[in-house]
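request received
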Amino acid sequence: MTFQEQWIALSTIIRKEIVRFMRIWVQTLIPPVITITLYFIIFGKLIGSRIGEMGGFSYVEFVVPGLIMMSIITNSYGNVVSSFFSVKFQKSIEEVLVSPTPNYIILFGYVFGGVIRGLLVGIIVTAVSLFFTTLTINNLPVTISIVILTSIVFSLAGFLNALFARSFDDISIIPTFVLTPLTYLGGVFYSIKLLPEFWQGVSQLNPVLYMVNAFRYGILGVSDINITSAFIGVMAFIVILSCACLYLLSHGTRLRA
Amino acid sequence: MTTALSIRSLKKVYSNGFEALKGIDLDVEEGDFFALLGPNGAGKSTTISVICSLALKSEGAIRIFEHDIDDDFSAAKKCIGIVPQEFNFNQFEKVYDIVANQGGYFGLSRALSERRTEKYLKQLGLWDKRNDTSRSLSGGMKRRLMIARALIHEPKLLILDEPTAGVDIELRRSMWAFLKEINAQGTTIILTTHYLEEAESLCRNIAIIDKGEIVEHTSIKSLLQRLDKETLIFDLKNELKTPPVFEKCESTLIDNFTLEVVVSKEHSLNYVFGCLNEQDIQVTSMRNKSNRLEELFISLVEKDKG
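response:
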C-alpha cells in the first residue's frame, strides 16, 4: 500500500470508530459525565469542604485534575477494548484482515479512536468541573502532552486486552480487578505524602500515579513525583505496549486461525 | 494466460493438531469460473481462509496473479475479493457504511469508494436499504451485501464460499446471472457450493477436495464424460403393474406411474425409448434421478473412503 492508501485506511478506521461511539453517545459520553459530576458533588463539595487543604489547594481544586484524568483513562481503555472485542466477536474484523491494511494501521486506527473518545470525555468533564471550581492551567504543554500520552497508553492496553479476550467476561476482568484499583490508588483523591513511607514506596510502583500527578502539575503546578520520570515512564509504556500489540497482530494471535 | 491462483504443497495444521490440508496443489486460470467442491469438513473453507490470510498456513506457497501472499501481500490482497460463508459484518452498521468503509481499507479514496458503493448496491438491489442497519436485512440481502462489499475494490479474483446457502430459488438464479455477468467481464471466480447443480451450471473447471487432499482437478466437461451410467426417471401416462423388460438396462417400478431406468454409457436413450415403444408404454416426462455431477461427486468421495 502506498502512503496515501495507508492514510485512507487509517482515516477509515478512525471515522468508523468516531461514528460508533457517537451513535451510542448515551452509553459512551453521558455515563462518565454523570459519574464524575457525582464525584465533584460528594468528594469535592460535601466531604471536600470538611477535609480542608491538600497540597496547598482546596480539596475540590486538588481532586479535579485526578477526576479528569480518571475519566480519560477509563474511557480510552473502555472504547478500544469494547470496540475491538466487538468486531472480533462479530467477525467483522475480517473486513480489515482480508484487506492490504498493515497491522500498524489497524493498531493506530483503534488507538486513535480511543484517544479521541478519551479526549472528548475529558473536555466534557473539564467543562462540568467549572461549575464546581475555577481552573487555571499552570503548564499547557505538560497538560496537553500528558493527557494525550496517557490516553495512548490506555488505548493500547485496551487493545491488548481485546486481543486476548475470548468472552465478554474477559473484557471486564482487567478494568474491574486491575484498572479501577490502580486508578483509585493512583493519587486521584489524595497526595501520597499523606501515606506512611512504606506505602509511598509501594504507590510509586503504580503507573497511574505518575500520569495523574503529571496532569495535576500541568493544572496546579504541584506533584508528588518527578515530572520527567513520569514522561519517561509513560513513553516506555507506549513503546512496550505497541511492540506487544504489533507482535501479536503479526502472529495473528486470537485473530487468525 | 496468467494463472489467477497457484497453490503449491499447501498444508494447514490447526493448533489442536488437526491436519486440515495435507499439501494441496491447485491452479486456477485467469477468467475461469472454478468450483471447489467437497463434503463438510473436507478443507474447502480452510483453503479459502488461508488464501485470504484469515488463517495462517503451516507450509506451502500461494501466488495470486503472480504475487506471493508472503512477499507481496499488499498486491496479492488487492487482487482478491472474498464472500465468506458466515455473515461477518457489524450488525449495527449501516449497509452503505459497510461497503464504503471496505473501499477505505483497500485504499480507495472516499469519493471513489462512495461511487462504487452506489454502483454495486444498485446492481445488487440494495440501494433502497442503504441507510438500514445490516441486522435488519433478510438472509438473501445479507448475502448480496457481502458480494457488494467484496466487489468494492473490483478484485480480479472473487472467491465465494457457499454464496447461495439458504437463498431461495429466485434469488439464487439472479445471483447466478450476476456472477456469470461479472465473470464474462473478466473476473475470475472460485466458488464453493453444496449445490452441485450450481457448479455444473456455472463453472468450467472443478476441484474436489476430501480430507484435506485434492482428489480430482479437471474440467466439468471431462468429468461428466466419465459418468458411465445415468439413472433416469420416467413418468408414465398409463398404470403399470410390473416393470417393462429391457435386455440391456436395469429397470424398477417406483410406483404404478413412475419408472426408474439405469442407462449405461454404451447404450443410447433411443434404445430405451425403442423398448418402451415396443411395449406400448407412453411417457409423459423424463428427468435425471439426481444431478449428474452429484453422482460423480459421490462416487469420487466414496471411492476415497474405501
